[in-house]
Amino acid sequence: MPEGHTIHRLALTLERAFGGTRPEVSSPQGRFADGAALLDGRLLERAEAWGKHLFLTFEGDRILHIHLGLIGIFDVTQYASPTSPQPLPPPVGAVRVRLASATHVADLRGAMIVDLITPEQQDAVLTRLGPDPLRAGTDGNEPERALAVMARTGRTFAEVLMDQSVLAGVGNLYRCEVLFRHRVDPFRPAKQIRPQTFHTVWDDLVDLLSIGVAFGQIITMDDQLDQAREIIAGQGEQASDAYRSGRLTLVDWRGADEAELGQRRPAYEEGSAFPREFYVYQRDGQACYTCGSRIRTQVLAGRNLFWCGRCQRRR
DNA sequence: GTTTAATGGGTAT
DNA sequence: TACCCCTTAAACT
Fold it and tell me: For labeling, which of A79, A89, A210, A310 is most exposed (least CB within 10 Å)?
């Protein structure tokens, strides 16, 4: 499930659930037992996402570095409320890390990276990342940085789009869909992409990923995006401003009382889901919605690329 | 019951 | 390019 939007949403959810508290940290499966013991009962200062990397900073500069990889999942649930305490639900399956408070529990399974690191090690991870569309408008996240790399690589645009050192947070699904949305040939050399085209793609990614964070799912089709934007516009000025600035993830919910949260909380939390539908992703052999020709697929650098050979020719 | 695929990515060859 | 790691659920036999 994880592209950048998943991780940014997780950071927001974890901050709301555990930020400023001292969660119990354990490793029911046992593979993170030592790290869990070091973090248990420590103050969780903040949770942050950079591209697909998640960092939970505990007091004393103890940083829990998590990367979900392809199959990782971090479930955060509220199992009790302050007025109605409930027993903590037992872990199910291979839970490598569990955070638990009197009201919330978060279970991490299948992650590729689970490490306790120092601020210096965190910096080393961050310097290897390209600009993150979900941090657009902040230092170091300018699309020009990606353009500079593109100008001196021999690789195709589709390869470069998923390279985390060029762009942080974009995965295979957003890649396929954004290429189709702008009718760009995936195999076009990155250096041949016009800067104006790339800026349009970048702006679109800022929009798409932000909506992905807001709704907790990848939405790429125009009719669904229109509905999504309408729902966001109905959330009031604060959510709307944050969305327009491309930083819906960075809204700080801490300190808000329940009434305020009710007003600011996006509709998605009440569970409005869009049908899972895409322009090209996993539609190989089916008719392109625009031109009717068959959607094609090919393994590119180990991942399944999907595109429309007619709509995405030579651009 | 066994195999496969999944929105990742590092390391060896 | 190949192989490895992580875990689960759906699709096979």
Answer: A89
pLDDT tens for A66-117 read 999 999 999 999 888 888 899 999 999 999 999 999 999 999 999 999 999 9
Residue A71 approaches strand C within 7 Å at CB? yes
Compute the distance between CA of residue A300 and CA of residue A52 in angstroms, rounded to an integer: 20
pLDDT (mean) for A187-216: 94
Residue A2 designated active-site? yes
Catalytic residue among A2, A23, A28, A143: A2
Dihedral angle of Cα A19, A25, A28, A29, to the nearest 10 degrees: 90
CATH architecture of A4-127: Alpha-Beta Barrel (3.20)
What is the rounded (10 degree) CA torsion for A276, A282, A284, A289? 30
CA of A149 to C1' of C5 (A): 29
Q: Which residue has the tokens 């919910």?
A: A253
Locate CATH 1.10.8.50 in chain A. 133-308
Whether residue A157 contacts residue A188, with contact meaning beta carbons closer than 8 Å, is answered with yes
Angle at alpha carbon of residue A53, lines to A114 and A69, rounded to 5°: 65
Cβ atoms of A280 and A306 closer than 8 Å? yes
Q: Which fold has domain A133-308?
A: Helicase, Ruva Protein; domain 3 (1.10.8)
- Burial of A105: CB neighbours in 10 Å, binned 0-12, 13-18, 19+: buried
CA R_g for chain A:
20
CATH 3.20.190.10 domain residues, chain A? 4-127
The reply to whether the predicted model has a pTM over 0.70 is yes
Distance separating the N- and C-terminal Cα atoms of chain A: 30
pLDDT digits (tens, 9 = 90+) for A257-294: 333 433 334 433 333 468 889 999 999 999 999 999 99
Given a contact cutoff of 8 angstroms between Cβ atoms, the answer to whether A179 and A161 are in contact is yes
